[in-house]
Amino acid sequence: MTGSQFKYLFTPLQLGPIAVSNRIVFSAHLTNYATQDGLPSAQHAAYYEARAEGGAGLIITEEHSVHPTDWPYEKMIHAFRPEVVTGYKQITEAVHRHGVPILAQINHNGGQASSMYTRLPLWAPSAVPDPLFREVPKAVNQDEIDQIIRAYAEIAERCVLGGFDGIELQCSHSSIVRGFLSPATNKRTDQYGGPLENRARLLHQIVEAVRAAIGPDKALGVRLCGDELIEHGTTIDEAVAVAKELESRGANSSDSRIDYINTSIGVATASLFMIEASMHIPPEYAMFIPSAIRAEIDLPVIGVGRFKDPLQADRALANGHADLIGVVRGQIADAQFAAKARAGRAEETRLCLSCNQECVGRMGLNRWLGCIENPVTGKEAVEASTRSGSRRSNTSRGAKLRLVVVGGGPAGLQAAVSGSQNGLAVTLLEATEQLGGQVRLAASVPNRAEFGDMIRNLVAEARRFGVDLQLNSRGTLDAVARLNPEAVIVATGATPNRPWWAPAEATNIVDVVHVLSGAANPEGSVVVIDDLGFHQATSTAELLADRGCTVEIITKGMVVGQDLGITLDMETWWLRASRKGIVQTTDRVAMGYANQELALLHHPTGTNETRSPDWIVLATPPSPADQLYFELKEPASTGKWLLRRIGDCVAPRRAHSAVVEGHRAVSEIADALGLVGAG
Prior knowledge:
Blueprint: E1 13-15, E2 18-20, E3 24-26, H1 42-53, E4 58-65, E5 77-78, H2 84-96, E6 102-107, E7 123-124, E8 138-139, H3 142-161, E9 166-171, H4 176-181, H5 196-199, H6 201-214, E10 219-225, H7 236-252, E11 260-264, H8 272-275, H9 288-294, E12 301-303, H10 310-318, E13 324-326, H11 329-333, H12 337-342, H13 360-364, H14 380-387, E14 402-406, H15 410-421, E15 425-429, H16 437-442, H17 453-464, E16 468-470, H18 477-482, E17 487-490, E18 494-495, E19 509-511, H19 512-517, E20 525-530, H20 535-546, E21 550-555, H21 570-580, E22 583-585, E23 588-594, E24 597-602, E25 607-611, E26 615-619, E27 623-624, H22 627-637, E28 642-645, H23 655-673
Parallel strand pairs: 3-4, 3-13, 4-5, 4-6, 6-9, 7-8, 9-10, 10-11, 11-12, 12-13, 14-15, 14-17, 15-16, 17-28, 19-26, 20-21, 20-26, 21-22
Antiparallel strand pairs: 1-2, 18-27, 23-24, 24-25
Helix pairs in contact: 1-2, 1-14, 3-6, 15-17, 15-23, 20-21
């Protein structure tokens, strides 16, 4: 499908004083790219520039804090510091080089924050503690409300000074303004509490102050939550009413004019799993919000909600749900999302998996944002510096230098793609008839099928860049030597490892790999041992429950699948597990298996228990399959070839490590060979 075949996606639109060339918005989201002292960084500029160069119609930055009482996470942009202007100019100049407008989102998180960094009480409309941070905030008085309003205006003016084309007010999922709008958190009895007219008063006062600060020539938008998904929270009817009032006030007075409405769903610290929905939530799940608002107002409306591909976004526009579409994770995974669609190359897009592992998950661990599929995301500034270095071209030597990659999982495939992009002639040897490794098995579970997009994306890129993919070709020392490579990358993965307590003769004890591959077919009662704390145990448990097995998951941890919370999959797992009758048992350690009985230790109390299942399925740590690497190491030591090993054959981990190491290994080889990389 060419860009011209998208009926609406690449049509221009006017947002007040600014024009956007298409309807694809890189909406606001946290990055953790700020410096330790709260200033914008060179990585911010490189990150946003990559999406501008990639064709986004509009970029809206992550939130900037307007007041010293608001510091909810460590590396937040402190817009209340005048020094931010230098970083702002670096960001806006980088984006403007590509003719793309960029807005700054400004915010005060109110009670949805922590006093860890400020050592000051949180400010909120009422003394209602947030369920995540659990701090009782201070109910702001009139003087403090006036401070907040002035702060928004001052910061908006500073953003304009820094070159931004306008301002977006975050009044949605994590904001003191949302706190005032919501009956769940606003218990006031003064002019800011009670009926919606009063609860919206702060919003209208901030709009007026910001408009006065930025003038008529800059855009001003408001992001509203359409449904908080909490008890007594804001619902779509009130959100529509607020949007109508915002438009009406702007029509009656230019001092209150806004230029668009952005939307969201959920509360960031109570129903976050619906804001940054994983693959378990259907695409376009939040479209009822912009659709309802757009039906009642004439202002342009931005819709969001797990948009993975441009066709899906164009369809939402065609159906009248929104005027613009926010695509965040889709452009995190592929900065060229918009450009590829416009050029008729949408099939080349690295589709987002909605796995949340390296974007949302890393943020939850207080690390900078990355992407499980895209090893460059989060390192744009570093990559740009590397590409500007002095390497020589491979083609100047005549025949291309050869790289052999052994293993066709995510690590090997990424290495093959990166190798081709760096000008190497790449041959990939895969012992089986299918590419994908452990990811292919993980995606075989119905509710994890989208995870398979990782392999589909990589295989498509490998073929497009001319990688010689040899299936049913076992990598051996002789096989590698026959290809006469200059470099070899070993990505042979890992193999199941039977834990000490499981006797070898017990044929009813199998690994999740055996179940997912079809090598074992448990029936009857099944115990799944979860020692990994991620999708391996829970996905397999669901698969077995769907087949009619009676399933109990046992873990030594305090929670089954404890890392599902990091990727926002915990809530939906609990719902599905309850519906399917899966029993979750915690704090038990497997101690042995004999006479058809599994011995368990309840470690908090030291008491012993037993189970007598028909089958035991292991989600336990595997062992690296590193034999080939060590066989290749001796000739490598004599200079026969450069040698690297990556992924699980180094140490079994998750897929993001495999992709990162595949890219990194090729960069190291290219540096060693002195090649110019395509980046």
